[in-house]
Amino acid sequence: MIDMSLSPLRGQQTAEEILEPSPMSKLRRRIFKNHSFMIGAAILIVILVCALVAPLLAPHDPYELDLSKRLINPFWHDKKTDAEFMLGTDKIGRDYLSRLIYGAQISLLIGFSTILISGVIGTALGVTAGYFGGRVDMMVNFIINTRLAMPVFLVAMAAVVAFGASLHVVILVLGLFLWDRFAVVMRSITMQARDLDYVKAARAIGCSTPHIIIREIFPNVLSSLTVVATVEMANAILLEAALSFLGFGVQAPTPSWGLMLNEGREYMFFSPWLLALPGMGLFLLVLAINLFGDGLRDVTLERER
Amino acid sequence: MKEEAALEVVDVSCVFRVNQGFMKGTKALHAVNGVSLKIPKGKVVGLVGESGCGKSTLANILLGLQKPTSGNVLYSGSSADSFSQRHIARRIQPIFQDPYSSLNATKSIKSIISLPLRVHRVGAPADWDRKVYEMLDLVGLPRRVAQSFPSQLSGGQRQRVAIARALIMRPEVIICDEPTSALDVSVQSQILNLLQDLRQELGLTYLMISHNLAVVEHMADRVAVMYLGRIVEEADAATLFRAPSHPYTKALLSSVLTPDPHLGVPDTQLGTVFPNPIDPPSGCSFHPRCAACMDICREQAPQPQINGAHMAECHLDTAAAG
After folding, report:
1. For the segment B27-43, what is each residue's pLDDT rounded down to a tens digit?
2. Distance from first CA to last CA of chain B, Å, rounded?
3. Number of CB pairs, chain A paired with chain B, less than 8 A apart
4. Confidence of residue A3 (pLDDT cuts 50, 70, 90)
5. Closest residue of B to A211, CA-based?
6. For residue A5, is pLDDT > 80?
7. Which letter does DSSP use for residue B275 in this model?
8. Of B105, B119, B140, the CB nearest to A205
9. Residue A4: which pLDDT band, with cuts at 50, 70 and 90?
10. Domain that includes residue B48, residue range
11. How far apart (Å, rounded) are the C-alpha atoms in residues B92 and B73?
12. A22 vs B contacts (CB less than 8 Å)
């Protein structure tokens, strides 16, 4: 047996004091110094809260139409305004502010569920390919190339024609199609991590392969994963808006910002705010997500090196 | 006297298939080529050689991370085939060169050191913390680093963490793969002394892989010199450093830099070209760089000549013996 009670004198060998602050506090400081992260996060939080408490926030039912109150102008106009409808009404008299608020729900729902589906698919494929390499990598690369050879937009339209247009179909199609970037990025990052000594140490300790992939490698690729996720989320939101605008996405009367753009199209020259407001919503949301993602990248990747 | 071997490799070879490019097929790279080495219990065996000579591949084979193409690894006399990776893990642990990449940056020190306990479910989870603290004491780190992350520690401290992780399951053999070459000179000696102390206190067996001859001379009882996948000379450390017999060992020893600036860079007469291991030279693989090359060296590979505890693979010895 080995005697565990050894002299406490050894502790004196390292006189070096730990002066470095903990990674968490360093991270926190960097977050507060990063303007794009802070601005992006602020806008995102506002939109997120709007979407979450939409029923409390919206002054009207977004589906309730009143043909006698069609195309009321928003408050900054001189005539034909109504204090009850701050941002006016659309062509069949629905409150525009309420529809905008509920529209945020749809956009965020699409964004989050798409990256959830595509993130799981892409990360699983990418990490597997990167860790095992060789044949597995070749196979995954083939799948990625196959996916890249298919135009998302055309396939999405075909799917809508085949299965009918609905929120579920849009989410499913986007989720099953936007995983390529996840796979490519995760693959290359896992490849780098795989050859580092801590993975070798874990193997020498006797960790199982799933343990190494999930517990050792995955936390190290997480920050890159979140950055890709923000990019893809913005991408998904824009694609949904485009599909809805063309009539292949979310169907009326659901308040989707893309659909609202489409519905306002005919009134572009007489009531430009019908297009400007949902357009602004999309613009702000995508801008915020991209700022947030950029900031997140700066904040987290700095931490590693 | 016959010593009990903690770890032994018998005629181990490891061949990699190297892709020559699209549609050109593969060629064999003999990273390790028929190596036999015995690591006696409680002793320190040094393994020296240039980069690319197969030292690290041999280490991976010993750790069970790389299956040898042929040959056998024996753990305390029984073949490695009868052990699982988890079994091997409890007997043999590595210490790596670069403590910056050998610790997972996302884990706390406590979680890094206790990982082997958690993976092998050694003892009760309630004891794990206590064991981690004991290990920290043992390797000379203050207990409060348990909550820190690797990025908060210096290179020497990180290497101590790596040592603590390797020792927490009380393995018999530690494979040190250049344990000091990534560290500052001032920290190197601290780590080496720590390794020495731990060996005495815990009765460990070391395989010390290094290209730093001073480290090996300081630590090792026996030294093996590796060249292009083969062990070309093996002897007790004192003998080898006093009277090397293989020309490559002589060249290596003469390459050690001296502190005297007037002496300049020593001439090893090796030339600069390390042969391509995919296309090894004929005969003795060292002959293109050898100062004492004879005709026979170009045609015939030398057989190991064993003289007591001294083994060398060179035609010079064959000639002397014959």
Report:
1. 888 888 889 999 999 89
2. 27
3. 105
4. very low
5. B119
6. no
7. P
8. B119
9. very low
10. 5-321
11. 12
12. 148-149, 152
- Partner-chain contact B153 A216, CB within 8 Å: no
| Overall pTM > 0.90 | no
CATH of A26-60+72-304, one of 1.10.240.10, 3.30.2130.10, 3.50.30.60, 1.10.3720.10: 1.10.3720.10
Position B130, amino acid? R
Count helices and strands (H / E) in chain A: 13, 0
Note the pLDDT of residue B257.
67
Find residues 110-129 of chain B whose CB sits inside 8 Å of chain A.
115-116, 119-120
Q: How far apart are CA B258 and CA B249, in angstroms?
A: 17
3-state secondary structure of B11: strand
CATH of the domain at B209: 3.40.50.300
Interchain contact, B142 vs A219, CB within 8 Å = no
Averaged confidence pLDDT in chain B: 86
Residue given tokens 């990747």 in the structure block: A301
Percentage of chain A exceeding pLDDT 70:
92
Tell me the shortest Cα–Cα distance from B122 to chain A, in angstroms: 13
Integer Cα distance of A126 and A144 in angstroms:
9
Name the residue ranges covered by the structural domains of chain A: 26-60+72-304
Count up the domains in chain B and report the number.
Answer: 1
Instruction: Say how far apart CA B298 and CA B287 lie, in whole Å.
Output: 6
The ipTM assigned to this model is 0.86
The pLDDT assigned to A257 comes to 92
Distance from CA of B127 to the nearest CA of A (A): 14
pLDDT tens digit sequence for B209-264: 988 888 898 889 999 999 888 899 999 999 998 888 888 888 888 877 666 777 66
Beta carbons of A22 and B152 less than 8 Å apart: yes
A27 vs B contacts (CB less than 8 Å): none
